[in-house]
Amino acid sequence: METFGIGIAGLGVVGSGVAKNLVKNAELITQRTGFKFEIKAAALRDPALAHGIVDPSKVKLTTNSMELANDPSIHIIVELMGGTDAPRTLIQESLKNGKAVVTANKALLAECGEELTALAAHHRKPFGFEASVAGGIPVLKALREGLVANNILSIHGIVNGTCNYILSQIAQTGSTYGAALAEAQKLGFAEADPTLDVEGFDAMHKTVVLAALAHGFWIPQEMVHVQGISKLASEDFAFAKMLGYTIKLIATVKSHPDGAVEAHVQPTFVPNRHVLASVSSSFNALAIKGDVVGETLFYGRGAGSDPTASAVIADIVDAAAALSGGHAPHLGATHSLYAKIKPYEETMAPYYIRLGALDKPGTLATIAQVFAAHQIGISSVFQPKDHPGDFVPLILLCDTAPERDVRLALAGIAGLGVVNGPATAIRLEEFAP
Amino acid sequence: METFGIGIAGLGVVGSGVAKNLVKNAELITQRTGFKFEIKAAALRDPALAHGIVDPSKVKLTTNSMELANDPSIHIIVELMGGTDAPRTLIQESLKNGKAVVTANKALLAECGEELTALAAHHRKPFGFEASVAGGIPVLKALREGLVANNILSIHGIVNGTCNYILSQIAQTGSTYGAALAEAQKLGFAEADPTLDVEGFDAMHKTVVLAALAHGFWIPQEMVHVQGISKLASEDFAFAKMLGYTIKLIATVKSHPDGAVEAHVQPTFVPNRHVLASVSSSFNALAIKGDVVGETLFYGRGAGSDPTASAVIADIVDAAAALSGGHAPHLGATHSLYAKIKPYEETMAPYYIRLGALDKPGTLATIAQVFAAHQIGISSVFQPKDHPGDFVPLILLCDTAPERDVRLALAGIAGLGVVNGPATAIRLEEFAP
Q1: Is B410 helix (H, G, I), strand (E, B) or coil?
Q2: What residues of A are labeled active site?
Q3: Sign of torsion, CA A363 A365 A371 A377?
Q4: Considering CB atoms only, which of A32, A150, A306 is closest to B216?
Q5: A341 burial level (CB within 10 Å; 0-12, 13-18, 19+)
Q6: pLDDT at B238
Q7: ipTM, 2 dp
Q8: Mean pLDDT, to the nearest integer, of A222-234?
Q9: Are the C-beta atoms of residues A140 and A282 closer than 8 Å to each other?
Q10: What is the pLDDT of residue A330?
C-alpha cells in the first residue's frame, strides 16, 4: 500500500469539497487504486475557517502556501487558491521540488498553460487540470487519452454554468436578462460581480485549455474572440424559439485541413434537434467530433463543490499512479501538427440577422442586393406581422459566410437609410454531419 | 522515442479499422504520446484477405493466433477475433509471456472477465477493454479513472446500437418490428441472425463489464435478468408516445446503501424530457450518477469499424504508457465493498401495465383491489376510447414496487375473468433527482 501526502492550497468551495470527499470515500478509492491519500497540510487565508473541513490535529494549517511546496511529507500539491500570481509561483516551486500538481485554475492555465505544462514535462512530473474545464465531466481525460487516436475536428461546448442558467431561464420563462441574473445570484450560480462569466471570459479560458489538449499548442487568450450574453435582446430569444433554435453560449474549437485552428466564444443559435439545445440550468456539455470516433457528447455538472472535487480527486489518483510508476502521463504534449490560428474574421458560419427595416416596398430588395454583392446567400426571410411602425423587425437566415463579409454587408446596409440602427447578428451552428 | 510492436488477432470490421487508423493518424499519435506503434503480425483465417488492410511486406501474416503470443517483437496483443475459447487462450498466453492485451470481446469478458483481469493483475500487465462497451465512447475510462472518487449510484445505458436503431425506427415511423429489423439488416446495423442483439444478450455482456468497473466484482452473467425487444407490441409504442415516454432497451446497474447491486437489461419507458429518450438510430449513451459528481452522460457511436478502433487505439496507447512506466494501470481492481447481487424480483421500479380488460362497470375496481392487496399504488389509469369489443386496453401506471409483487398482482388478476390474456408490464425509469 503506497501512501501519498496531499497539500491543499485554498479551502474554499472546491478545496473543502476535495477534503470532504477524500475522507468520505477513502476506503473505496484505496480499494480501487491501491493508494492511500493523507492530507498533510492546507494553506488558507484564515486558518480558523478550516474548522469542520479538515482535522487540525492531523493537518498542518498555514497562511503561506509556499510552505506546501517545501514540505517533504507532501507528494501532490492541489492548487485551488484562485488568482494567478501566487498559484503560478506555488506550482513552479512544487514542480521544481519534484511534486505532482493538480489545479482547477483555468484563468492561470489560459495565461501560463504553455509555461507550466513545459515545466511539468521538463521535471517529468504529473500536472493535472481536469477540473479546470466542465467540472466533474472527465472531458480533458477523454481528449488526452480516450480520443488520443483522433484528429479532433470540432469541439462545441457549453462550459459556463452561470451563462447557461441565465440563458435557460430566459428561454424557458421569458424572464429578462436582469431578472435571470438576479435569480442566478440568489441561487449561487452567479457571483456578485458576474463579469467574468457573463462576458464570456471564463468560457474563453476553458476554450484555450480545450484547444491546447486537442491541437497541441496554447492559443494566446487575446486571440480568442469573445462575446458574452449580457447584450442579448429578449426578442432574439423569441425569434430563436419560433425558428426552432435555442440560444446557448458556445465555446468553439475547430480544426481545418490546412492545420489552422479557430477558437471563439459567442452566443449561438443551436437547433433544437441537437442535444446541446436541451442542456439546461447550470449543466455543462461538450460535443466533440473526431475523425475516427465521429460524434461524441459529454454532459454533467460544470461547477460546484462536489462535482469539481470529483475531477480534482481523479487527477490526484492519476498523479499518484504516475509517481508510483515513475513516469509522467502523456500531457497532450505540445506539437506542431497544428499551430496556425484562423483569425475570427475568416471563420465561416451561417448567421441569424435581425434588422429594424423600413416598412416600405423595395426595402428587402435593397438589403438583399448588399448581401448578394458580398456573395452571401439568404436561405430564409421572416417578417413578424405584429410590429406596427415605420420600422419593423426583419429576420434573415444567411448561408455560411466568413464573419468579415457578414460584418461588411451589415455595415453597408447601415448606410442606406432603410434600417433604424445596427443589426443583430448571431451565429448558427447546424452541426452538419 | 519508444516503439511498440503490435500483433492483431482478427482483421475483420474492427481489426481493419485499427490497422487503418493506426497508420493514418500515426504521426499525430506519436507527437501526442512520444510512442511509435508498428504492426508486426496479424492472425486471420485467410491471409489473402489481409490485402489492402496491412502491408504484407512489413506485417507477418499467420492463420495461427497463438504465434502472436510467442512473438518477441510484439509488446501489445490486440484480440479482435470473436468467439471465446481461442481468444481466452490467446489472452492467457500473451499475459503469461509478459505482453499487454487489448480486446473488444464483451462475450469473453462476461464469461471470463474475473479470471482474465486477475491474471493481468498477477502478471502486472495492462489489460484494456474500452471497446467492449459503447464502442468509441471512452466510458470505461470514465468509470475507472475519471469518476474514481465516486460511489457509482446508477448506470442507465443504451448500449446496443442494433436495438436502438430498431426501437427508434418503430417510434419515429410507426414501422413494425419485422420491417425495422429488415431495414437494420439492410443497413448493416443488424446481423443475419440478430438473436444476440435483439434478445438483449449483447447488452447483458456489457452490463457485466460496467458493473465490474463500477462495483469491483464480476456478476455471473446468468444472474443478470435479460429481456429483449423482439416481443414488444406496436400498441405499446403508441401508448408510450401518448404518455410522454420513449421505449429504449436499457442496461441498468444500481447500487444500494447496503452494498447490494442490481444489474438487468429490459425495454424501459424513458421520459421524453430525459436526454436518453432522444438518443436515436444506432447511437449509444450512458447516464452515470456518482455520489460526488452527480449526473453525467456520455454519448457517441457504439459500434462500427472506426468508432471501435478509436477505443482500441486508446487502449493501445494506455498499454504502452503502462509498459513504458513499468506499472499496470489501476484496473478497477476487484474489491469487497460491494459483492451482493440483488435478485431481480426484489428490484423496485414503477411500471407501465397494459391489460385487455372486460369493458364492464366494476372491472377497474376488481383490478385495483388486487394491486391494493399487494401494496402497489396506481398513479394513473388510462383507457383509450377507440377500441370497440368486449375487451378494451386498460393502461395503468403503477408506483414503485418490487418486481415480484407486480408479477404476483398480474398473476392474481389473470385468474379473475376480467382480462383476456397475460398483461404487458414494462418498467418506467423516471431518473428522479
Answers
A1: helix
A2: 206
A3: positive
A4: A32
A5: middle
A6: 95
A7: 0.95
A8: 97
A9: no
A10: 59
